[in-house]
Specification:
Helix content is 31%, strand content 25%. By secondary structure, the protein is an alpha/beta fold. It has a four-stranded mixed sheet with strand order 22-23-1-24. Strands 2-15-17-16 form a four-stranded mixed sheet. Bound molecules: uridine-diphosphate-N-acetylglucosamine (UD1). One of its GO terms (cellular component) is cytoplasm.
Length: 419
């Protein structure tokens, strides 16, 4: 199993090119199922999760080709509507094929994803929303069996909580339904906006973009198109956090400052100088130690849960103390015991963590537990004295493209070791 060996103490400097967003690429790939003519997706990050979904979609009979940052697909050849447990269990986002398969073919059989490290993460809202459009759903032996007589019917969907995947699934179903669907309490994450833009390009009719009420007027057919995946706001924030963590100056390019304003404001509160361009963001910590800042994770446009672990790591070496509240997932502090092994002072009580900054972290062997938590350990290692060995980095490979190359480009001493 691969590990990262990181020698801390380097002040990171330079430019890093941000990839397309994993969390946008996955629903966009699932949406390809809806197209009756071939289509092309560009700026696709080269990641394990993308590979998993490409494999799953190929298994449906789609002629799909993934080369460099481009995926081409011809979904006119789909010959089955089955998503097996073996693939779905490795990536929860596989459930996103349910909505488009059901909408286009009137039936689908998709494995339930099961829980994951950061919480139980049920899909009840996805299923409830599809039922509101007339789907008959049964869950049997770990599989969702969904069917509808004829076409799905437009209806009213009211989510009990803001769900990114739920909103995406129902959007991809409603675009081919008969009539108008209103989705209330819809998620407004930039990845939803990206999906809406692509669906519109394919011929869908969607109003209320960027609001929590989406109104979809179903159409009978959707065509393929060419589309480029939006920049990864979480990757952007993660590399800016690396600058804050090491007192350095990092410019992220091919990104969009409008996607992560809540995070940039926190960096400014830490004392960093943040400069925004049209498609770049630079964070200059000017050699200073950041101030610890309190924050609470909430749905977009508030502070994203996917940046919680990284900002927690920066707080760990901050001046003063801060409270971090996690309101999206019930078990997303798994990085805390690992950061503590490196000398961080963090007290957890329920979904709140109080972080009292220490002047220096120290190297220790640690273990990555989930995708974003893993990057927080990388950050801690970059700032720590000595050599840190991070185990189970397959979690990082799921979501950060070319992480060693990108960090090395900023001066970091990081290498991948196999054991
Ligand atoms: C997506 C992102 C993930 C991010 C999360 C929140 C992808 C591939 N993943 O995950 O990186 O951390 O949004 O921004 O885009 N819930 C239910 N029932 C449901 C659906 C959700 O109870 O049917 C709960 C979840 O357990 C969680 C909360 O709602 O507590 C939000 O989850 P959701 O927004 O659906 O997250 P994902 O789409 O899985």
């Amino acid at each position: 199993m691969d590990k990262f060996l990181i020698t801390g103490g380097v002040t990171l400097q330079g430019e890093v090119r941000i990839s397309g967003a994993k969390n946008a690429a996955l629903p966009l790939l699932a949406a390809m199922i809806l197209a009756e003519t071939p289509m092309t997706l560009r700026n696709v990050p080269n990641l394990m999760d993308v590979n998993t979904l490409v494999k799953l979609i190929a298994g449906l009979g789609v002629k799909i080709n993934y080369q460099g940052d481009t995926v081409t697909a011809d979904a006119s050849s789909i010959d089955n509507q089955f998503a097996p447990y073996e693939l779905v269990k490795t990536m929860r986002a596989s459930i996103l094929v349910l909505g488009p398969l059901l909408a286009r073919y009137g039936h689908a059989q998709v494995s339930l994803p099961g829980g994951c490290a950061i919480g139980s993460r049920p899909v009840d809202q996805h299923l409830k929303a599809l039922e509101a459009l007339g789907a008959q759903i049964e869950v049997e032996a770990g599989y969702v069996h969904a069917k509808v007589d004829g076409r799905l019917k437009g209806g009213e969907v009211i989510f009990d909580m803001v769900t990114v995947g739920g909103t995406e699934n129902i959007l991809m179903a409603a675009v081919l339904a008969d009539g108008v669907t209103t989705i209330r309490n819809a998620a407004r994450e930039p990845e939803i906006t990206d999906l809406v833009h692509m669906l519109i390009k394919m011929g869908a009719k969607i109003d209320g973009i960027d609001t929590d009420t989406l109104v979809v007027t179903g159409v009978e057919h959707l065509n393929g198109c060419e589309y480029a995946v939006v920049a990864d706001r979480i990757e952007t924030g993660s590399y800016l956090a690396a600058a804050a963590m090491t007192g350095g100056c990092v410019k992220t390019t091919h990104t969009d400052p409008n996607l992560l304003e809540a995070v940039l404001e926190k960096f400014e509160e830490m004392g960093a100088e943040v400069t925004r361009g049209d498609d770049w963001i630079e964070l200059d910590m000017q050699g200073k130690r950041p101030k610890a800042v309190s924050f609470r994770t909430l749905p977009h446009p508030d502070f994203p849960t996917d940046m919680q672990a990284q900002l927690m790591a920066v707080n760990a070496i901050g001046r003063g103390f801060a409270t971090v509240s996690e309101t999206i997932f019930e078990n997303r502090f798994m990085h805390v015991p690992e950061l503590s092994r490196m000398g961080a002072n963090i007290q957890v009580e329920g979904n709140d963590a109080v972080v009292t900054g220490v002047e220096k972290l120290s190297a220790a062997p640690v273990m990555a537990t989930d995708l974003r938590a893993s990057f927080s350990l990388v950050l801690a290692a970059l700032a720590a004295e000595g050599e840190t060995l991070i185990d189970r980095i397959y979690h990082i490979d799921r979501g950060y493209e070319q992480i060693e190359e990108k960090l090395q480009g900023l001066g970091a001493k990081i290498k991948r070791v196999s054991s």
